[in-house]
Amino acid sequence: MKIYRNCSLLPYNTFGVDGRCSALVEYDTEQELCDILNLVQKGELPSPVLQIGQGSNILFTGDFEGTLLHCSISGIQVLDSSDTEVLVKVGAGVVWDDFVSQCVENGWYGAENLSLIPGLTGSAAVQNIGAYGTEVKDIIASVRCFDMREGLYRTFDVNECGYGYRDSLFKKCRDLTVTFVTFRLSTEKSFNLSYSALQQAALAEGADSLSHIRDIVCRIRRSKLPDVSTLGSAGSFFKNPLVERSLFESLKQKWPDIPGFGDNSGTGPVKLSAGWLIEKCGWKGKSLGRAGVYEKQALVIVNLSGATGEEIAALSRLVADDVFKKFGVSLSPEVLIL
Ligand SMILES: Cc1cc2nc3c(=O)[nH]c(=O)nc-3n(C[C@H](O)[C@H](O)[C@H](O)COP(=O)(O)OP(=O)(O)OC[C@H]3O[C@@H](n4cnc5c(N)ncnc54)[C@H](O)[C@@H]3O)c2cc1C
What we know:
The chain is an alpha+beta fold. Helices cover 28% and strands 28% of the residues. It folds into 3 domains: 2-71, 2-Layer Sandwich (Uridine Diphospho-n-acetylenolpyruvylglucosamine Reductase, domain 2), CATH 3.30.43.10; 76-186, Uridine Diphospho-n-acetylenolpyruvylglucosamine Reductase, domain 3; 232-337, UDP-N-acetylenolpyruvoylglucosamine reductase, C-terminal domain (Uridine Diphospho-n-acetylenolpyruvylglucosamine Reductase, domain 1, Alpha-Beta Complex).
C-alpha cells in the first residue's frame, strides 16, 4: 500500500474541484485493509475514513480532514460456466467500462447497456448504477466486502445487498468496503431494448451483436453527456423523485405533458423526471458563477471553469429550491456531497 499525506483531491473527482485530504491510501489487495484498519485504530491514519473510486459521483465542498481509501484491486476471473451462463469475479478496482468491454469481447450478455458509465466496479455495486433499462443488480450474483468495524470479510448474496434505485446496503453501511463483485452473465444471445431510443437505433441499424449494441449505447451517451476530461461533472446530480400518485395527478392537470413512470396497477407512487422539472424551471443551460446546468441535459450540473465545490453545491441548492417552489417536489442529490 502507498500512503500520501496532505494529498490533492484534483485527480480523485470528475467535477475537477481542487482541495486536499489529510491522507490518501492506495491499496491493491483486500488483505491490506486489515493493516489499514490497524493504522486507523492506532491513530496513525486520521478518521473519518472514506472509500472512493474515481470520484465520479462525489462533490468535495472543501478539504477532507480524514483518510481516503482508493482501491486498486484488479482481476477478472471466470469462476464457473455452463451452456447458458458464466460466473465472473471482478476486483473492485477494475475500471467499470474495461469490464464491460471484456464482457462484449467474450460474448457475455447483460452489461452492455451500462457501457461507458465512469467509475470502478466496486463503486458500481455500491451505487447500483443504471442506464437504458438495466441496473447492475440485474447481473450481480454476490458482493464481497471487508467490514472495517468488525475487521472481517463478508460475502453478501445479491438478495442481501438491499438494492433499490441508486441505493444499496453499502451506501448505508459505510464500514463495508467492497473488495470483489461476482457477476452472473448470460452466454445466450439476449438484449435489453426496453429503452426506446436504444430500441429505435438497434432496429434502424439491424444491430444483432453485443459490440453493435455497445456502440449504440456509447454514441447515445456521448451525444447527451459531457466528457469529464473537458467539462467537469458527476453525471445526474439529482435522483428522479418518487411521488404519491395523487400529487402526480394534480401536477398533470396543470402540466399535461409531465412525464411520470409508475407500476402497471395505476395506483402506486410515480417516478418523475428530475431533468424535466429542472428544465421547466428555466435552468437548462443557465449558470451561477462558474457552475452551470448542462445545456444538453438539465439533470447534469457542470463545472464551467475552476468552480469550487461550494459554488457547485450552491447552484444545486438553488435549482432544488426552484423545483420545490414550482412543483412542491423535493429533489435529493444522487451525488455524495462532502
Ligand atoms: C459523465 C457521467 C455520467 C454518468 N452516468 C451514469 C449513469 O448513466 N448511471 C449511473 O448510475 N451513474 C452514472 N454516473 C455516476 C457515476 O459514474 C457512478 O455513480 C459510479 O458508479 C461512481 O463510480 P466511482 O468509482 O467514481 O465512485 P465514487 O464517486 O468515487 O464513489 C461513489 C460512492 O461509492 C463509495 N465507494 C466507492 N468505492 C467503494 C468501495 N470499494 N467500497 C465501498 N464503497 C465504495 C464512495 O464512498 C461513494 O459513496 C455518471 C457520472 C458521470 C461523471
